[in-house]
Amino acid sequence: MATSLTFSGGAGTVTGSKYLVNDSGRQVLVDAGVFQGEKHLRELNWQPFPVPPESLDAILITHAHTDHVGYLPVLVRNGFAGEILATEATCELAEIVLRDAAFLAERDAEHAAEKGYSKHEPPLPLFTIGDVEQALTQFRVVDFDVDVRLWPGWTAHWTRAGHILGSASIRLTTPSTSIIFSGDLGRPEHPVLRSREIPDGATTVLIESTYGGREHHDPAGAAHEPLASLIRRTAKRGGSVLIPAFAVDRTEVVLQTLTQLHKDGRIPTLPVFVNSPMALAALRIYTETRFADELRPDLDAGSFVDLPQLHEVRSTEDSMKLNSPKVPSIIISSSGMATGGRVLHHLEHMLPDPRHAVVLAGYQAEGTRGRLLLDGAQHLKMHGRQIPVRAEILQDEEFSVHADRSELLDWLAALSPRPTQVFTVHGTPESAAELAQAIRTDLGLDVQVAELGQTVQLP
Q1: DSSP string of 76-111?
Q2: Structure pTM?
Q3: 43, 198, 251, 403: least surrounded by Cβ within 10 Å?
Q4: Both 166 and 119 in a single domain?
Q5: What is the per-residue pLDDT for 115?
C-alpha cells in the first residue's frame, strides 16, 4: 500500500504545522500546531480536522512552540486517545506552553463575554485547561538518536535540530517509504544550544522555509552592536528598552546576549526585568543540570545567565508598575511578535514616549503588531485605541535561530542518501517558493511547494 501525506497546516504559512501520514491502515500526525497571525488563519483553528481525531494512531512532535503543539488539546478533546511522542525537554516545555495558552484562551473568552464583542454566544475558548490536563497524560518521552518502534514496519527517529531545547527533526519509516520532517531548523551554531545534527536520509523530505528567501547577515563589527548602541543611548536619554521575546528559547538567548554584552562592558548596568511567568518557567528548565548536555559545551547550565540586576516579575501588580519604569531599565516580555500577553500593556504605555525603545528580536510574521512596527507603522491598535509610535524601533536579526536559505540548503545537501522528492513547508508562499527554486537550481532535486489541504502519494 502506498503512503499518502496531507498538509493540514504549515503550508502556505509559517504557522499551524500539521502533517498527516497514512499507510497500511495507520494514521500518524507529525506536529499539531495552531494557526497564528492574520484573522483568516486564526479562523482555521475552529475548522473540523480533516480526519476524525480518534482515527489517529499517534502524534509525533518536533518541538514545543505553539505553532507545533498548540492544537493538541483540541484533538484530545475531540477524541484522540493515542500517545504523543516527543523528547523530554519538549514534553516539559509543551506543558508550560499549553497551560499558558489555555489560561489565555479562557480569560479572553470571559473578557469577550463581559464586553459582548464575540460572534459566539456564549464565547468559547479554543480549548480549556481540562483539555490540556488530559493531553499531558498522553505524552511519552523519547530519546534523541534512538529508533523508536511504533508498530511492525513503523519506526521514528528524533535528531537534534538546534532550534530550541528539545527540538528535533523526525525521520519516520513506514512499511512503504521513509520521510524526514525537518521541524524548525536552527543555524549551524546556536547561541545557547548544541549545534543541529544531520539525520540519515529518506525518500521524501519536508523542509521548513521560514527564512527560505533570505540570508542572515553576520555583523561587520562586534556581535549585537546595534543592540548595545541602542541600550546605551536609550539609557542616556532616560528611557527604557522593551524587548518582546518568545517565552521559550528567545528569552534565554536574549538574556545570554545581555550577559555577554555586560561582561564585555558594552552596556551599562541596568535593571533587567523578565516579565513573563511562562518565560520564567522555561528558563528554569533551560538551566536545569539534567539538560546540560543539550547546551553548548562552552556554557554552564547554571550560569549562562549572569546579570547583576536581574529581576523576575510574577504578579500582575508588579507587571503594571513596569509600564512607567522609574529608572532606565530593560524589560523582556512575551509575546515575541506582540500578538498578546503582558508586552501589550508595556507597548501601550511606552510607544508614545520617544525616550523609550523597542527591540524586535527576530522574525515578525505578517499580520502581527511586531511586523507593523518593523514596517514603520505610525500607530498601533491596542485595547481598542490607536497608540502613537514615537519610541525608537530596532530589529536585531542576530537573535534569529532559524536557518537561512544557505543553511537550509547545507542541511538538505548533507542528507545521505539523497531524497527522491522534497516539499518546502512552514513559510510564506514567497519564501517557500524561493527556497524551492534554490533547491532545484543548486541541488538538482525534485521539489514542490506544499499547499494547504493538499494530499500527495509518496514514492
Answers
A1: HHTT--SEEEEEHHHHHHHHHHHHHHHHHHHHHHHH
A2: 0.92
A3: 43
A4: yes
A5: 63
